[in-house]
Structure formats: C-alpha cells, structure tokens
Design goal:
Blueprint lengths: L6 E5 L5 E2 L15 E5 L36 H6 L9 E6 L5 H12 L5 E5 L4 H10 L8 E4 L3 H8 L7 E5 L16 H18 L2 E7 L9
Parallel strand pairs: 4-8, 5-6, 5-7, 7-8
Antiparallel strand pairs: 1-2, 1-3
Helix pairs in contact: 4-5
C-alpha cells in the first residue's frame, strides 16, 4: 500500500497544490511563491451529513430590524464602507506595505471608540509602537482597547464574550497563527483558517471586523 506523502507544495499566491517545488506556479504564474507544507496542515473535507440541527427559514418579505451602521465620521472611509460598518461584518483592508493601512485604521478605531468599546490587535507592532504612533497622530487619549497578539485561539477567547467590542482591527491577518496547523503564519492555510475563525466569532458577537491584508508585488493579497 502506497504511503501518503508527508508534505506538499502550495502556492502562497493562489493556493494551488503541486507535487514538487518549482520556481514558478503553473496555475497563476507567480514566481517564488511555492512553499512546502505538512500534508496534514489542512484537513481533507469530511462528510457533514447527519448530526446537524434544522435551521429556521423566514419569508423574504418579513420585517427587518432597523439597519444600524458604525459611522466613523471619516467621510471617505464611511463612503467606501457603504455608509458605515455593519455589526457582524468582516472587511478586508488591503494595500501595499507602508501605504498607511495601520494609520487609517487607528484613526477609525479612535473615532468608533467614542461610541463604545473597540479593540485594536496588532500582530506586527509592539504595544509601545502603536502608542507612539497614536501620540504622533494626537490620538493618545482615545479609549481604544489595545493588544499585541498573534495566536488566534487567544484572540477568539478575548472577543467571544457577552460584552464583545463594537469593532475589532486585526493588523495584519498574515501574522495570525492557528495552532492546529503545522504551516507557518502567512501561508494560504494559515490565512484562510485564521480568517474563518475570526469571522465566525465576529458574526456570533456582532463585532465589525477589520482585517488588514498586505498586497504582494503581483497585486494580490498575500496568502
């Protein structure tokens, strides 16, 4: 009986799986994007038949709760967000490294913190670095809940509470780490799993989630 391979080679740009390493991905054409991962780093899909609970359907024409959006007061950001962030939604803020994503979202969280608890979780900078940037921007007194963390398990435990924050920034999704996977942070498997876990808790608690994503030189979101 043939032995299952212990590793596989995955393109970090498009997620394509290859039998061996190559300098160029045949699927998307990206160079130097193929990384070796443990074969078990992403579990094979299993049947989900049976064991579930019946979901409740409602009429399309039924009455809806009053639409509520979190408005930052930063005109262009609110416009791009469709008039404000929807509770329980997930928004990916992408751009080249150093373009100002963290600066913009620090302004947004400082503004939203005037309406209720808001969390800013940095996986790239230490708490003191974020504080120094806030001081330079005149936002040092904003009531933002700040943390430096990369373990998704710990972040989920901190957000999955009855008094969950109105909004939470994850800066950046490429630095997040799911400890049930063998692959390194920033790989396709890690980014996908981290995003799924964070989005799941955001929907459950009604937290507007803002995920920072870096763009590669090919113009795609890394991971």
């Amino acid at each position: 009986m043939a032995k299952a391979p212990s590793s596989r080679f995955v393109c970090q740009a498009c997620g394509a799986v290859h039998r061996k390493w190559s300098g160029k991905c045949d699927d998307c054409g990206a160079w130097n994007s193929i990384v070796e991962e443990a074969a078990g780093s992403e579990a094979l899909p299993k049947s989900v038949a049976g064991g579930g609970r019946k979901i409740d359907f409602v009429a399309l024409s039924g009455a809806s709760a009053e639409e509520r959006r979190l408005v930052s007061g930063i005109g262009e950001f609110d416009r791009v967000a469709g008039g404000g962030l929807v509770p329980g939604s997930a928004t990916l803020v992408g751009g080249d490294p150093g373009i100002g994503k963290s600066t913009l979202l620090l302004q947004v969280t400082a503004a939203l913190a005037q309406q209720g608890p808001v969390a800013y979780i940095s996986g790239e900078e230490a708490v003191d670095q974020v504080r120094m940037r806030a001081r330079r921007m005149g936002l040092a007194e904003a009531p933002v809940q700040l943390a430096a963390a990369t373990a998704v398990r710990d972040i989920v435990a901190s957000l999955d509470l009855p008094d969950a924050p109105l909004a939470a920034v994850i800066d950046s999704i490429q630095t997040m780490f799911v400890d049930t996977l063998d692959s390194a942070p920033g790989t396709v498997a890690q980014v996908r799993a981290a995003a799924q876990e964070l989005i799941r808790v955001a929907k459950r608690r009604g937290t507007a989630l803002l995920l920072v994503g870096h763009v590669t030189k090919e113009g795609t979101i890394a991971g």
